[in-house]
Design goal:
- The complex is a heterodimer of chains A (about 140) and B (about 240).
- With about 140 residues, chain A is mainly alpha-helical.
- Chain A has one domain.
- The radius of gyration of chain A is 58 Å and the shape is rod-shaped.
- Chain A starts with 6 loop residues before the first helix and ends with a helix.
- Chain B has one domain.
- Helix content of chain B is about 70%, strand content about 0%.
- Chain B contains eight helices and no strands.
- Chain B starts with 6 loop residues before the first helix and ends with a helix.
- The chains are: A mainly alpha (about 140), B mainly alpha (about 240).
- At the A-B interface, helix 1 of A face helix 2, helix 3, helix 4, helix 5 and helix 6 of B.
Chain lengths: ~140, ~240
């Protein structure tokens, strides 16, 4: 069962021959392809990181532009709002002045009318008092 | 115990060549025509032809055959690199991968009626083991020069008288353990299958034994490759 002979040496030679054949037919080409693919993937990885960096820079640029535009819009809005507020206040003051003038005028009119009516009543009051005294006394004064 | 039917031996006998009817032959021609030799050449031809046919033109996006070989070769490459480093893998990949593929195929063909496992002969397994044993000492001497002897001296100088014989015996035992483990397992599988072929008919060996045979075949190929890688890595390491 355990007999060693010259075939031991032949088997060693067989194995060495098989190593050389398989190395040239199988291992070398396949390992070459695996190596090339790994290199290609590493290259692609570099390109991907380059593109990612570019995209990030672009995004930062867009963000900066957006922030700038947003600032500009805010300033325009604020100035428009301040303008509108100033114009409104001016208009309001104008209207108020006009209303005050009208009020003054109306008050002056009423005062004049009141003075007229008072003096007229005063005149009538003397006449009315004389009539009342004559009636009481029963004779003309 | 002789195999019931070995088709290569039948062909050789038909051609008038002297096929031995025991385990080994007596004349040189008989020894060359011994089944484990003829089936070794069959396995070698199978591996070379199948890899040549299935690889075809290699492309960046692999086809079916290329995909299979890329998984096998790439998987082994990664395993070797993890255990021995890139430099040693590049140097010894063809040797260890060849052992792995040859042992796996040689073990498995014994499960097919009409074939036998060349690894069920001690001449085959010892041939593989001698290559591994010599190579691992070559790696050791190349890496450490004459200081490689420190691998056999143990951790302290006063332990040398005890450690040196133990280390030498354990190192020489690698020759026996590596070869006899593979030979014994496959021989047992072959003998069991041979008996079952005779009892249950040559075309129907009981399925559970066939499943066990597949398992043993692959596990033994893996164990041989694993131990080879460990021996190579140990030889290149610094002595404790």
């Amino acid at each position: 069962m355990i007999d060693m002979d010259i075939t031991l040496v032949i088997q060693i030679i067989n194995m060495i021959v098989l190593m050389f054949f398989l190395n040239s037919v199988l291992y070398k080409p396949v390992r070459e392809v695996l190596k090339k693919r790994a290199e290609k993937l590493a290259g692609m990885q570099g390109e991907i990181s380059k593109f990612e960096k570019n995209a990030q820079l672009r995004q930062e640029e867009v963000d900066a532009k957006m922030a700038k535009a947003s600032g500009k819009a805010k300033a325009a809005l604020d100035s428009a709002r301040a303008d509108a507020q100033a114009a409104g206040a001016e208009k309001l003051a104008d209207i108020k002045a006009k209303a005050d003038a009208e009020k003054e005028k109306q008050m002056a009119d009423i005062k004049a009318q009141l003075a007229g009516a008072t003096s007229q009543l005063q005149g009538s009051l003397n006449d009315f008092a004389t009539q009342m005294a004559s009636k009481i006394l029963g004779r003309s004064l | 115990m002789e195999h019931p039917i070995l088709f290569i031996s039948l062909i050789l006998e038909g051609l008038g060549l002297p096929v031995p009817h025991g385990f080994v032959g007596h004349t040189f021609l008989e020894q060359l025509c011994a089944p484990y030799m003829t089936y070794t050449w069959l396995v070698m031809a199978f591996l070379i032809i199948v890899s040549k046919l299935t690889l075809g033109n290699l492309e960046m996006i692999p086809g079916k055959g290329q995909n299979f070989w890329e998984i096998v070769v790439g998987g082994m490459d990664n395993f070797f690199v993890d255990n021995m480093g890139r430099e040693m893998t590049d140097q010894f990949f063809p040797m260890i991968a060849t052992f792995g593929l040859y042992i796996a195929v040689a073990n498995l063909i014994g499960l097919i009626p009409g074939f036998m496992s060349p690894t069920s002969s001690i001449n085959t397994t010892l041939a593989l083991t001698i290559i591994v044993w010599v190579t691992h000492h070559f790696i050791g001497f190349r890496a450490h020069g004459i200081k490689y002897y420190k691998h056999f001296m143990g951790p302290m100088w006063w332990l040398v008288p005890l450690m040196l014989p133990i280390e030498l015996i354990s190192n020489f035992a690698r020759l026996l353990s590596l070869s006899i483990r593979l030979f014994g397992n496959i021989m047992a599988k072959e003998t069991l299958l041979g008996i079952l072929f005779m009892l249950a008919g040559f075309a129907f060996a009981p399925l559970p034994i066939m499943v066990l045979g597949v398992l043993v075949s692959l596990v033994q190929a893996m164990v041989f490759v694993l131990l080879t890688v460990v021996y190579f890595a140990q030889a290149a390491e610094h002595a404790h």
